[in-house]
UniProtKB/TrEMBL annotation:
Keyword line: Cytoplasm, NADP, Oxidoreductase
Biological process terms in GO annotation: tetrahydrobiopterin biosynthetic process
Species whose genome carries this gene: Lobosporangium transversale
Primary location class: cytoplasm
Protein name in the entry: Sepiapterin reductase
Domain of life: Eukaryota
Length: 280
């Protein structure tokens, strides 16, 4: 088997779906060597996840990695500094790959970190200030990180020199990106914007072996869903989410993250498209 070495950057990797994704990547991707860059606010949480990944023994995958903690992607004042820290960490992994002659065959950025916004409010109650705060985190920093990642990856692994290298950008999206529901104004706007940006990138960078995917993981049985049940102002939807919670039909994080990793492995998805956990 030819060696498959992936550089995998995940935001919000300390807990929730991001941590589940990191585990699934080790367990189910085609890589036999993975260099992780785990990004988030909680440094010790990220370190714990990286240690767990390195202790997985059920598959024969070499796991290396670095954590970039104390990264608050909602703070625009520190965004340049934090992007530079992520850039340095990724370059460190690329440099090690060169030194050990373990060439990177795929570079993957998974934009997982995200927030709900105030689900207690309908659109007429939003202030532009809270809209700006919401979009700073969920859209502006997303664009900044994706631009940097693309520029750096294409410069470090140019197609002329590395024709087999692939680049993949994933947006952890939502049904709300393609279907509106009451009280989700900020969340739906943010997810739709992220989806569309990756649609554009898919066209712009097709010739550079870049693919993008917007993946909606389904209603997950986790902290964010608990926040939805606690804060959502729309009673009809609340009844549905409560019912799913009580009947145990919320999606298990590991089932959804495995589905995403297998989609990436199969690599026959339409670049720039939107795929939901429930599809097929
Ligand atoms: N849960 C669902 O049912 C569901 C459904 C559809 C889509 N999604 C999407 O799935 C993704 C992961 O969400 P989740 O369900 O795992 O939610 P979660 O349990 O609330 O986790 C959110 C992650 O984002 C990080 N984060 C939050 N604010 C941040 C900030 N300002 N800067 C950097 N990182 C920050 C969190 O880190 P901290 O520990 O530092 O807070 C955490 O790692 C999100 O994009 C979400 O929209 C979730």
């Amino acid at each position: 088997m030819t060696s498959q070495h992936h550089l995998v950057i995940i935001t919000g990797a300390n807990r929730g779906f991001g941590a589940s994704l990191a585990h699934s990547y080790v367990l189910h991707s085609e890589a036999n060597s993975i260099s992780f860059v785990l990004v988030g606010r909680n440094h010790s949480g990220l370190e714990k996840v990286l240690t767990e990944l390195q202790q997985i023994t059920s598959v024969n995958v070499t796991v290396k990695g670095v954590v970039v903690g104390n990264v608050d992607l909602s703070n625009i004042e520190t965004l340049d500094t934090n992007l530079a820290r992520i850039q340095i960490a990724a370059n460190e992994m690329r440099q090690k790959a060169v030194e050990t002659k373990n060439i990177i065959t795929k570079s993957v950025l998974i934009n997982n970190a995200g927030s709900l916004g105030d689900l207690g409010k309908s659109t007429k109650e939003f202030t532009w200030q809270e809209a700006r705060d919401y979009l700073d985190f969920n859209v502006v920093s997303f664009i900044g990180l994706n631009s940097m990642f693309l520029k750096d990856t294409l410069a470090a692994l140019p197609k002329e020199q590395y024709p087999d290298h692939k680049t993949v950008i994933v947006n952890i999206s939502s049904l709300l990106a393609v279907q509106p529901f009451s009280n989700w104004g900020l969340y739906a706007s943010g997810k739709a914007a992220r989806d569309r940006l990756l649609g554009v990138v898919a066209l712009e960078e097709k010739a550079n072996n870049v693919k993008t995917l917007n993946y909606a993981p389904g209603p997950l049985d986790n902290d964010m869903q608990a926040d939805v049940r606690r804060t959502l102002g729309d009673k009809e939807q609340l009844k549905i989410y409560d019912g799913m919670h009580k009947s145990g039909s919320l999606v298990k994080m590991d089932d959804s993250s495995r589905k995403l990793v297998l989609l990436l492995k199969k690599d026959d998805f339409t670049s720039g498209g939107h795929i939901d956990f429930y599809d097929e």
